[in-house]
Each structure stands twice: as C-alpha cells, then as structure tokens.
Design goal:
Number of domains: 2
Structural class: alpha/beta
Helix content: 40-55%
Number of helices: 12
CATH topology of the largest domain: Rossmann fold
CATH superfamily of the largest domain: Alpha/Beta hydrolase fold, catalytic domain
Radius of gyration: 23 Å
Order of helices and strands: EHEEEEHHHHHHEHEHHEEHH
Strand content: 15-25%
CATH architecture of the largest domain: 3-Layer(aba) Sandwich
Number of strands: 9
CATH class of the largest domain: Alpha Beta
Largest sheet: 9 strands, mixed
Distance between the termini: 13 Å
Length: 356
Amino acid sequence: MKEAIIFVSGFDAQSQNYFLDNFLVPGLLTQLEDLDIKLDPEDVKIPGQTGKRFYHQLETDRKIIDIYEVYWNDLVNRLSSQDTKQKLGRGLSMIFYWIVYNWKIAKISPAFFFQTSIILILILLWYFGIVVLFLAAIANQPELESSTFIQNILAPATQWATNGFGWQVWLVISAVLTFLPLPINFIVDLIYFLTCYLRNESIKGTPPIRALLRNRVKQSVDNVTSEGSYDKLTVLSHSMGGLIATDFLADYHDQQSQQLRFITWGTALESSSTVADWLKLEIKKCLENPYVGCWDDFYSKQDWLCSKVPVIKSQSKSKLVSKHVSFKVSLFKQFSGESHMEYFFDSKVLRNLIMG
C-alpha cells in the first residue's frame, strides 16, 4: 500500500519542509518505538513536490508513506517588515478589528478571551512604539520646517516623541518586550496574517491571501493526484494550516471520486469562526463534502491556542471525530505557546497518522 500525506503546516515556516524536517520527521522516528518505521535517506520527488518517504513494516505487507509539506511562508505579507506609515495605518486597523470582535470570543470561551486580550495588550504596546517612531520621523522632515503653523501644531508631539515622556516610556516598553517568550514581531505578523485572512481583503491590487493559499494547497493536491501511484490520500494540518486546509477542502472535488482523510492538529477554528461568519459555512461544507471521507481532529487543554472543531447542533458530524490529547508540559510552556508544538511528539497523535 502506498499513501501520500499532504502536510499543511502552521505559520512561519522558515524554509521549504521546515516543519517536516524539524518536527514531524523526528517525532515519527522517536515516539513510535513499537512500530517498525524507517525513513528513506533520499528525498522522494514527484513533479512539483519534494518530500520524505517512510516505510512502515506490517505483519504481511509493507506500507509506503510519502509526506509532502505545503510551503506558504513566501505568500505572507508581514507587517513588521513594512515602513512606519504602513505599520501606523494597518496596525491601527488591525487593533480596531480585534477590539470589536474580542467580545464575541468572550461569549464562547473565557480562556480564549483571556488569550486574545493578552495578545491585544502586547500589540497595543508595540503600536505605542510605532506612534513614537512616526512622530520622531516627522520631526526630521525638512519640508515641514518652513511652515510655522504646522510646526506650532507638531512641535509638542514631536518633542514628546523624541526627548520627552513618550520616548522614555517606549524605552521601558521595548525593554519589557524583549523578555517575551515569542518575539513581538512574530506575534504582530501572526495576528496581522490572521486578520487579512479572515477579512478576505486584497492589498494593493493583489488577490486576497485566502485565495492565494487555497490555490497553493490545490497545486500540491493536484501534483499528488496526478502522480497516479497512491492508493490513499491524507491531508494533515497543524495550527493555522488547519484554517487553510479546511477552507480548501470545503470545495474540494476529485475527478476520480476518491475520498481523502483529513486530520487537524491544534486548530483555532472555533475562535476564528466566531470572528468570521464565512468560516462557519466552510466548516459545514467540509463536513458535507462527499470527497472528505473522515475528519480526525486533535486538540489539547494544555494548548491554549486551540480548541476542538466547532459544529452547530443542526450539522451532521458523523465524519468528524474530535479527540482530546493530554500533554505533560509545564504551565510556563502552556502560557508561552510552546505546548502548541507537542502534537508532533505525542505517540497517540502520531499513531493515528500512521495507522489510521
């Protein structure tokens, strides 16, 4: 038997196959000692895809499992890398968006509300620095020096930002932010990406990031199905990858009428669907899609960034099985978000991937 696993990874893959090489491969090779699993030293290659090949020896047969990671980091528009004016405008829009919708999140889960509130506070601290830098930049604009009226208006603000209380406060804030478990730029970029995705808006004439990412997953699925040598197809997703994969599979269809297996690890579909009503419809369509044969969803209470996939009472959920996983991690790792990566090293989760 030969199976292809298309792995839609989470946010901030630093290179092609980053999560596959650094998390999934080590997990499969070290956490399933009772299973005979071997990694082919050579990469497996098909047109358009490069991945890893595993051999799983069964009692009477050998199973070949090829895993291909969908790389999408190159499509992300990072707010932290933009100029100060863009950070000022888009950052303010992002903050207002989450202030408005954070109260909706509070209705479904106090824990989610606590998390998003902490993140929002951190982003507000980051934005304070952007305001200070913007005002300091204005102070150095020579074209404004000729206008006495403008100088009289801006002088107090620029003085506050360059030598006054504002600059002193920002020095303290920046020192505090350096002690965060995750870099503040990573947090800002992640929330900005999620905001753009949920809004489904285009930027500067480019297609919305949602459309670009759906198409990227489609390309990978098409590459694998065109190969024609696989008996089984699985779509595995983790974290933000679960949002993208669900969005894609809602409208997935296969010309050969072959069903696939869908697996989600640690998704934020519940909190995201509270903010974006269209996502509730995509979950419903995914559950009703005849080409999605089954949906195994793994979540953990020790992973504060996720919950099980939400399903309203009127929806059929016969194909969806949500399974709670208990991680043995410290409270600090839960608070810092490190527990979000524990799915890659949990034997129950990995066994489902290999044996399911």
